[in-house]
Amino acid sequence: MTEINLSRISEVELIYRRKVKANDRPKVSSSKDAYHLFRENWDDLTINLYEQFKVMLLDRNNRCMGIANISSGGVSGTVVDNKLIFVTALKSRACHIIVAHNHPSGNLQVSSVDIQLTKKLYEAGKYLDLSLLDHLILTDESYTSMSDDGLIPC
């Protein structure tokens, strides 16, 4: 039998550190609530400079457990790795997610790429019992909610 050299195997560690009690977390009851939380956590110096994609992690009661940066890109786009979104959500024990990205141009129009990505995230989330509640497109002044616009099934 061959001896295994354990120094050549990566260690995987799963931890969760709760810093805020569940009842003290902000509750997200609408797209407006989500927009305000995202805006509070978006850098005012870069929102009009380059595109970023973030995920909001929600517990079973729609209380915000945190917001994670997924990617940063250029003036007209950023690459989104779905695996990073779900590994972040699963590791944090999230029950629901809301994703958001900014449009530095100030245009709040939903693109076909935005719709395709949202459908993919929605379908993948169903298999993981991790629901995608909304996908926001935001600027420094306003936002568009794909859920409010009927682009995400209720």
Structure description:
This protein has a 5-stranded mixed sheet, sandwiched between helices. It has 3 helices and 5 strands, in the order H-E-E-H-E-H-E-E. It is α+β, with helices and mostly antiparallel strands and about 150 residues long. It has one domain: Cytidine Deaminase, domain 2 (3-Layer(aba) Sandwich). The mean pLDDT is about 90.
List the helices and strands and how they pair.
Blueprint: H1 31-40, E1 52-58, E2 64-72, H2 82-91, E3 96-102, H3 112-127, E4 131-138, E5 143-145
Parallel strand pairs: 3-4
Antiparallel strand pairs: 1-2, 1-3, 4-5
Q: For the record, what CATH class applies?
A: Alpha Beta
Major beta sheet summary: 5 strands, mixed
Q: Report the principal-axis shape.
A: globular
- Strand proportion: 15-25%
CATH topology: Cytidine Deaminase, domain 2
CATH superfamily annotation = Cytidine Deaminase, domain 2
- The strands making up the biggest β-sheet line up spatially as 2-1-3-4-5
Distance between the termini: 55 Å
The helicity comes to 10-25%
Structural domains: how many: 1
User: How many DSSP E strands?
Assistant: 5
Radius of gyration: 17 Å
Name the CATH architecture.
3-Layer(aba) Sandwich
Number of helices: 3
Overall structural class, as computed from helix and strand content, comes to alpha+beta
Kindly report the average pLDDT value: 92
Order of helices and strands: HEEHEHEE
Poorly predicted spans: none
